[in-house]
Amino acid sequence: MIENIIGRDHEKQLLGDIYQSKKSEFVAVCGRRRVGKTFLVREYFEGRMLFQTSGLANEGTDRQIKSFYEDLLDQGLPTPSDAPHDWIEVFMLLRSLVRQSSAERKVILLDELPWMDTARSGFVAALEHFWNSWASARRDIVLIVCGSATSWMMDKLINNHGGLHNRLTRQIFLQPFTLHESEQFLQEKGFTLSHYDIAILYMAMGGIPYYLEMLDPRLSLAQNIDQLLFRPLGALHNEFQNLYAALFRNSADYIRIVESLSSRRSGLTRKEIIDQTGLTSGNGLTTALRNLESCGFIVRHQHYKASRDTAVIYQLVDFFSLFYFHFLARKKATNWMHFQGTAEFHSWAGLTFELLSWHHQDQIKRKLGISGIKTESYAWRCDDEGKGAQIDLVIERADQTVNLCEMKFTNAPFSISLAYEMNLRQKLSRFQEMTKMRKSLQLTLVTTYGVAVNSHSNIVSNEVRLDDLFAPEG
């Protein structure tokens, strides 16, 4: 039911437009595993779905066809004289199911589509034939395909150069929840967590609905993290390995890449990845980086250096993977409480809060009152020996102003010391000197509880607090 869907306002509006359309629609729903693709479609079209089926993990063609066929029989297809032998025959039976329906719109969900496409099965060709030769000519079909293996979805559907080239009518790339949506979800589950605790939870697990659903409101935040992640029998204790193995062939190479990226939060160049992993440069690495990016685990962006030249940087942005490498991969501690208040915790929280802020730039811009202004965002660093400097987030605005954003995650208002004021002034000066920037500079601090007023706080032009990052989108 639509009322069961937390957030997802844009996606709900788009699905409504698709259902009200006067033509057949071919829709691809992509996104990271566990992000809620299937839930969104099933809940939105509850009571209006003509047919739905799902691919089977690690099964061959015969089992895939048999499962699809059994779902057809279970959902209204009369038993034909012969069971299908190939995918062409399967889709012919799907035509029969559509023809016998009197529904105004025939909504069809093919979930975990990449699993159906087994080696030399002819699945993609049969899907092409079903859509191109029949379904697209009608006006009443809504064909929705989902897949966590987003790289497959990109190669075989979205960027297909064969029979499905430009056949998709709509695309939905489902993102993790924002902080606002996460808070709504947790409140529906009976939690009354503070924004500080929700931020820690988000930095550990990301806004992944599947993970949030596992939380127990009877337990504290620390108890939940212990129970799910640190205990050997915890529901998410082996999630990291399962996550990558389910998405990628040769998952060991993918894990080597993300492990190397976890070592430097600001990201690595392609050459640095090769040096750290020992992988060879070539199509294999290019494909792996592209697949990790399309699945939402890494981002590729331009990193502005001292001279304002740009370098392509790959950055790990999956909160769950970062938490795994920091606390679970090489640590002997068996509970989350072991890390509370330690330097290791504060190091992780400080660095991850930068990423959290990056993920909520729209909320930062709204707080600054610049939502309607064209902006460009990037990180900046100067590696000159003895004069190195780095700025977490630079927001360059079309109104001749630049916000230089620093992020600080603390459990009290952040107090600027004389030493830190001098450090900030050096950063501003170095940035202006090395970039030849002529726009006005505004130092912006993004903190948990604001900046404490003292003799050094006047250096700050703007403040953004954690509460501001919980603002809804729009």
Main β-sheet, spatial strand arrangement: 2-3-4-1-5
Task: Indicate the overall shape.
Answer: elongated
* Strand runs, count: 12
Instruction: Determine the number of helices (DSSP H or I, runs of at least 4 residues).
Output: 20
Overall pLDDT: 91
| Low-confidence runs of at least 5 consecutive residues | none
SSE-based structural type: alpha/beta
| Gyration radius, in Å | 25 Å
How is this structure best described in words?
This protein is of the alpha/beta class and 474 residues long. 43% of the residues lie in helices and 17% in strands. A five-stranded parallel sheet has the order 2-3-4-1-5, with helices on both faces. Strands 8-9-10-11-12 form a five-stranded mixed sheet, with helices on both faces. The chain is elongated and about 85 Å long. The model has no long low-confidence stretch (mean pLDDT 91).
Defining key terms:
474 residues, alpha/beta, five-stranded mixed beta sheet, 20 helices, 12 strands, 17% strand, elongated
Task: Summarize the topology.
Elements: H1 9-20, E1 25-31, H2 37-44, E2 49-54, H3 61-74, H4 87-99, E3 106-111, H5 113-116, H6 123-133, E4 141-147, H7 150-158, E5 170-174, H8 179-188, H9 195-205, H10 209-213, H11 221-230, H12 239-247, H13 251-262, H14 270-277, H15 283-294, E6 298-304, E7 310-316, H16 319-328, H17 343-359, H18 361-368, E8 375-382, E9 389-397, E10 401-408, H19 418-435, E11 440-447, E12 462-465, H20 466-469
Parallel strand pairs: 1-4, 1-5, 2-3, 3-4, 10-11, 11-12
Antiparallel strand pairs: 6-7, 8-9, 9-10
Helix pairs in contact: 3-4, 4-6, 7-15, 9-16, 9-17, 12-13
